[in-house]
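sorry for the late reply, my laptop died twice this morning and i had to redo everyting from scratch. anyway the thing you sent over, i finally got around to it. pasting the sequence first so we're on the same page, its 217 residues, then the predicted structure underneath. double check i copied it right bc i was rushing
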Amino acid sequence: MAEKEPLIPKHGGYRKLKSFQIAQLVYDITVRFCDRYIERRSRTHDQMVQAARSGVQNIAEGSQASGTSKKTELKLTNVARASLEELKLDFEDFLRQRGLPMWDKDDPRRAELIARRPVTADDVAGWVKEVCERENRGLGGQNGLDGQKTLSTASTSSTMSTTSKYSEVAANAALVLLAVTCSLLDRQLAAQAKAFEAEGGFTERLYKKRREAKGFK
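ok and here's the structure:
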């Protein structure tokens, strides 16, 4: 005899979702990035950290809510997607406002980072350092790594250009991981919408269970 479908199906399990895992990584990276490159008392610092946190929290809350409300799951997953899009714009603005380059879609560094499959913020930081040191060696250790004019003092110029280079690579790394997360969430939303259309939500299941209990089919 086949088991009856439970009224509240299995739900949660968000920690196993790839979208949650990478969103959480983006959150950790964003906190580090903002603490290092954004004025802590600025509104931008708080907004970027909160947008990153919102992405993580809403994926988790949507997963937990899915047992009784597919509609809420869809809504919260969409909120997570919107929050990460907002964060993406903030990282893009950081680069644009400082005249730092934004990597195009075909930049080999994008594929390199994705192939690394970083799990922690330390993994990403290590990769950023590798890229900066490699590109510094490629330029013969000269000043002006980011194309900016050198300042009057060589040591000051070197420090400024090195900081700019690290912030450039770190911001672009965050954008790469954000693009991956947003792509995963787009697919997640499409699957959730399809499941909702096919299966309905908690109200439909409750109605069906009541009819079965009364002997109706």
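The chain has one domain: 14-213.
thats about all i looked at so far, will dig more tmrw
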